[in-house]
Amino acid sequence: MPESPEVEALARFLAHAGSGREIRGVDVLEFRTVKTRAAPPSSLVGRKITGAARHGKHVELELGDVSLVVSLGRHGWMRWLDADAAEPEAEEPPALAVFELSDGVTLQATDAGNWVSLGLSVVGDPTEVPAIAKLGPDPADPAFTRAAFDAALGGRRKQVKAILQEQESLAGIGNAYSDEILHLARVSPVVHAAALDEAAAGRLFDATVSTVRGAIDAQSGIPIDRLKAQKVASMRVHGRAGEACPVCGDTIRDFAFASTTAQYCPTCQTGGEPL
């Protein structure tokens, strides 16, 4: 699942490489991706890219007075092919929409899932996309504060891992980085926000900010086709079940709950007790 560090790197790449290029052609191969039927992606032909921005896990491609918002969902991504680039290998995620740009460049919106999670919206303002309008504060934002974080937790009787991934509460975090945040903060993935004491809440805030912003810095400048591999390689606990915790050496464990999974260290996060 793309999360804010990778999506931020993608947006920065598109802003740098795409600005000034004209959209010469659009081919939507999966029409379920189109979320604005009155303003389809084909209406963008002839427009020039003026910039790009990130909104949570969504990418906005700016095109003058309108924008193409690509909602990446669970399996979506974008692929940039220069004029002399080889065709993608058969095992690579399929393109669901193709944008032909000037200078022979092709920009593809892809989806690697068994069901379509990618969404394409042509809007005058990104907040016209309902998921963006409902986004909570973003820990990557320099203006993000402890007060905003405490408001998101709100003393709720809900598991902290779920709140971290709840886009209406905190924008941009998904399953992988929530595991990393909780491990760094030494907080159990199943503890309720209402049960956190002041020290634990403070550690969780610090871990959220440092994990998200540190990952954005680490992903900066990495080619967009390598971002997923870089993300996987950088994980301390997520996807590392059965391996040794890099902090204490205990075995990292899996735990499945509420239609999701978590990887965690018992010694660091649950008082030595497996969940």
From TrEMBL:
SMART domains: Fapy_DNA_glyco, H2TH. One of its GO terms (biological process) is base-excision repair. Residues 2-116 form the Formamidopyrimidine-DNA glycosylase catalytic domain. It catalyses: Hydrolysis of DNA containing ring-opened 7-methylguanine residues, releasing 2,6-diamino-4-hydroxy-5-(N-methyl)formamidopyrimidine. Gene3D superfamilies: 1.10.8.50, MutM-like, N-terminal. GO terms for molecular function: 8-oxo-7,8-dihydroguanine DNA N-glycosylase activity; damaged DNA binding; DNA-(apurinic or apyrimidinic site) endonuclease activity; lyase activity; zinc ion binding. Residues 236-270 form the FPG-type domain. Belongs to the FPG family. Keywords: DNA damage, DNA repair, DNA-binding, Glycosidase, Hydrolase, Lyase, Metal-binding, Multifunctional enzyme, Zinc, Zinc-finger. PROSITE patterns: FPG_CAT, ZF_FPG_2. Its cofactor is Zn(2+). This is Formamidopyrimidine-DNA glycosylase. PANTHER family: FORMAMIDOPYRIMIDINE-DNA GLYCOSYLASE.
